[in-house]
Design goal:
Blueprint (H helix, E strand, L loop, with lengths): L31 H4 L3 H7 L6 H24 L4 H16 L14 H23 L12 H9 L8 H27 L3 H7 L12 H8 L3 H24 L7 H14 L1
Helix pairs in contact: 2-3, 3-4, 3-7, 4-5, 7-8, 7-10, 7-11, 9-10, 10-11
Length: 267
């Protein structure tokens, strides 16, 4: 897991958000009218007549969360090549609106919708996919089969059910995206070295960060490092909430989804 559980109790910054709630009016996630512009909300609202904006939003979500689906298919017993074919074929059906027609506009979480749709696809369309393979595969998302299988092989517990594997990999994909966004943000600000040095503190309780060693390595003061860590933690919380918001339908579901995320790792 990319971040430690102590993040939810960090009160160092009065303007920061709690991991599971808010400490101020700024949450880092869209609220009110702004929430309607999140990617999953756009898809939900356009479910009956998908246009370019909704298609782009759905494609973006699929690019981020394809690996949990691949891992689910593999854990169901399909060999790597078939799992890759099935994942690509599922996304093709999804982007053709095959599974959006019955989607409820008023609610739903992308994580749950995607797994339900995949199970339906595997139950009903596997024979059709095998027949279509004779004509060559259609790549819908950028899926590196060799890389996907390498990632799947490091899954720590082979006793986990396909559903549990999906949940774990979904949570990891979300946290990986958050860290990637933060890394890019720091790089644009000319602070890539600082992010590399400080990102490890996100996995530690606040009092256990090696501030002195970090200060020496960065050529600055311990006080400056403490302030930088505080800001990184606050920014992490904000980006996490914003990314979770893209996968739920309503603002009040953000905190619930984050709690679920950490329950998955805790279990």
């Amino acid at each position: 897991m990319a971040a430690g559980t102590d993040l939810d109790s960090d009160t160092a910054s009065p303007a920061s958000t709690s991991l599971l709630g808010t400490k101020s009016g700024r949450t880092g996630a869209p609220t009110g009218r702004g929430f309607a512009r999140t990617r999953w909300s756009v898809v939900l609202k356009a479910a009956q007549a998908v246009g370019p904006e909704a298609e782009a939003a759905l494609a973006s979500l699929c690019e981020t969360y394809w690996f949990p689906l691949y891992a689910f298919v593999r854990r169901q017993g399909h060999p790597p090549h078939d799992a890759e074919d099935l994942t690509q074929a599922f996304f093709a059906r999804l982007l053709e609106r095959r599974y959006l027609d019955g989607l409820e506009r008023e609610g739903g979480r992308f994580r749950s919708f995607l797994l339900t749709a995949l199970k339906r696809f595997l139950a009903n369309e596997w024979d059709r996919v095998r027949a279509a393979k004779r004509g060559g595969r259609r790549s819908i998302v950028s899926l590196d089969g060799e890389s996907a299988e390498s990632r799947y092989e490091v899954e720590p517990s082979h006793a986990l059910t396909p559903d549990k594997v999906y949940e774990r990999q979904w949570a990891q994909a979300l946290l990986d995206r958050v860290m990637g966004l933060l890394r890019d943000e720091y790089a644009r600000a000319g602070k890539a070295e600082w992010f590399t040095a400080l990102s490890g503190t996100l996995g530690r309780p606040r009092g256990e960060a090696p501030y002195r060693e970090l200060a020496t390595g960065l050529g600055t003061t311990e006080a400056a490092v403490k302030m930088a860590v505080q800001r990184l933690r606050a920014r992490y919380r904000a980006v996490l909430r914003a990314e979770v918001a893209h996968t739920v339908a309503r603002p009040e579901e953000v905190g619930e989804e984050i709690r679920h995320l950490f329950t998955v790792f805790g279990g």
